[in-house]
Automatic annotation (TrEMBL):
Protein name: Inner membrane-spanning protein YciB
Membrane-topology descriptor: Multi-pass membrane protein
Alphabetical keyword list: Cell inner membrane, Cell membrane, Membrane, Transmembrane, Transmembrane helix
GO annotation, cellular component aspect: plasma membrane
Family indicated by similarity: Belongs to the YciB family.
Function: Plays a role in cell envelope biogenesis, maintenance of cell envelope integrity and membrane homeostasis.
Subcellular location(s) per record: Cell inner membrane
PANTHER family documented for this protein: INNER MEMBRANE-SPANNING PROTEIN YCIB, INTRACELLULAR SEPTATION PROTEIN A-RELATED
């Protein structure tokens, strides 16, 4: 399969989330009556986000020919917690999604570490070639990082406004992940397997 168009890939990865943010900014003050029930703009957008996210995930699969295990887990969480949000007309369920996704990833990474394995290496499927000790260190750091993100998400949605949470979810979390991996450049360089190794 030829390499995926990077612009299209980025659009499929970030498009649904950015569209949700734009929709939230436009509709956050509005109420909608659907089937005799009143729904806030956040709830309506969550309901619209689910099929858009599923479509983007399916198109990503068609584009790259595979879907990562983290993507599968994210799709399941979006459908389950987004569905509960709409069904129960309660935005808290959708806000909990990130806490559970990050917490579950951290927990799985720690289980692998306890067994002397880096499940991060398994998930990344050869994207980076590192020696075992490099994978173990990176996995340990990433487990703590995701645990921190889970705590941060929980604190923000429970104690701050929905506006702050949506901004954090849309921009803060991806920025934190980017900064984390940039900060691991020295570790990755030190443990990188060269072609002659």
């Amino acid at each position: 399969m030829p390499p995926a168009n990077p612009k299209l890939k980025a659009a499929l990865e970030f498009g649904p989330v950015l569209a949700f943010f734009a929709g939230y900014v436009a509709l956050r003050e509005r109420m909608f009556e659907i089937g005799g029930q009143e729904y806030a703009g956040f709830i309506v957008l969550t309901g619209a986000f689910i099929p858009v996210f599923l479509l983007a995930s399916w198109l990503m699969y068609r584009l790259v020919g595979r879907v990562s295990r983290i993507q599968v887990m994210t799709v399941v969480m979006v459908v389950v917690f987004g569905g509960l949000t709409v069904w129960l007309n309660d935005e808290r369920f959708f806000k909990m999604k990130s806490t559970l996704v990050f917490g579950l990833i951290a927990g799985l990474l720690w289980i692998g570490l306890a067994r002397g394995q880096s499940w991060l290496e398994y998930v990344m499927e050869g994207v980076i070639r590192l020696r075992h000790e490099g994978w173990m260190t990176l996995t340990r750091r990433l487990a703590w990082f995701f645990a921190g993100l889970a705590v941060a998400n929980e604190v923000i949605w429970r104690s701050l406004s929905t506006d702050v949470w949506v901004t954090f979810d849309t921009f803060g979390q991806p920025a934190a992940v980017f900064v984390f991996f940039m900060a691991q450049a020295r570790l990755i360089e030190a443990h990188m397997i060269e072609d002659g190794d």
